[in-house]
From TrEMBL:
Entry coiled-coil feature ranges: none
Highest taxon above the source species: Eukaryota
SUPFAM superfamilies to which the protein is assigned, alphabetical: Protein kinase-like (PK-like) (SSF56112)
Protein name per UniProt: Cysteine-rich receptor-like protein kinase 2
Alphabetized GO MF terms: ATP binding; protein kinase activity
Domain Protein kinase, residue spans: 1-214
Keyword Transmembrane helix found: no
The keyword Cell inner membrane is annotated on this UniProt entry: no
Pfam families, alphabetized: Pkinase
Annotated keywords: ATP-binding, Kinase, Nucleotide-binding, Receptor, Transferase
Encoding gene per record: CRK2
């Protein structure tokens, strides 16, 4: 089902910030999708690897943020098919030779009529990127993607993976850490040391404040185990997301 879903959805949209499908085959024991070749592979290998993290300076990271924004806005506003990706994360953002971002992996994506505000569906996505109200109420809308996008932006700026920030019961996930820095006026401490500079300081701090400061962190831990999610244990009080609103393809920071 994911195979045919991906073929159908990715074939219905075309944008410079969406990975391009070249062909597919469902003959034989395995089904295959053939996409354009992107030499720099996925974003996560750069921002979460200390050895090559300095390859992405702020200009490149901002370009990636902008490209991801534009690709996501196209999915949400495309007149042919209103598409919710459901799995926006660093490993699903691929990079070409010039570090232009392209959103990939449409296996979990859903399309539905534009006049609907949401659809009820089973939970699907990656822990740490799923909006708590989506986990709680299983109602899917574009806000689920916007929440995931906000987590991704904080990861790009900080060089930290959201749920991997948790090493003990006293540790904080990235969203809580970002909120605490925002509240105490120490947002600069959240920025990846590889990209800290006076030249772009205001722009980086603006990016942190936009994605960390409105509103408070989720009332439930979005990094709970898969068992808790499947068992419905992550529902109490989960009526807010740390990032909300509309993705605008014109990024202004």
């Amino acid at each position: 089902m994911d195979f045919f879903n991906e073929v159908k959805l990715i074939s219905s949209v075309e944008h410079k910030n969406l990975v391009r499908l070249l062909g597919c085959s469902c003959l034989g024991p395995e089904s295959l999708l053939v996409y354009e070749y992107l030499p720099n592979k996925s974003l996560d290998r750069f921002i979460f690897d200390e050895e090559i993290g300095n390859v992405l300076d702020w200009e490149k990271r901002f370009k990636i943020i902008t490209g991801t924004t534009q690709g996501l806005a196209h999915l949400h506003e495309n007149p042919k098919a209103w598409i919710i990706h459901r799995d926006i994360k660093a490993s699903n953002v691929l990079l070409d030779s010039k570090f232009q971002a392209k959103i990939a992996d449409f296996g979990l994506a859903r399309s539905f009529e534009e006049d609907k505000t949401h659809v009820s569906t089973a939970i699907a996505g990656t822990l740490g990127y799923m909006a708590p109200e989506y986990i709680a109420h299983r109602q899917l809308s574009e806000k689920a993607d916007i929440y995931s996008y906000g987590v991704l932006v904080l990861e790009i700026i900080s060089g930290r993976q959201n749920c991997r920030s948790i090493t003990s019961e006293h540790s904080q996930n990235l969203l809580t850490l970002a909120w605490n820095h925002f509240q105490t006026g120490t947002a600069e401490d959240l920025i990846d040391p590889n990209i800290r500079s006076l030249q772009h300081r205001k722009q980086m701090l603006r990016a942190v404040s936009v994605h960390a400061g409105v509103p408070e962190p989720p009332a439930v831990d979005v990094c709970v185990s898969a068992d808790v999610v499947e068992g419905g244990g992550a529902t109490a009080g989960a009526d807010q997301s740390a990032v909300h609103g509309r993705v605008d393809d014109g990024v202004r920071l």
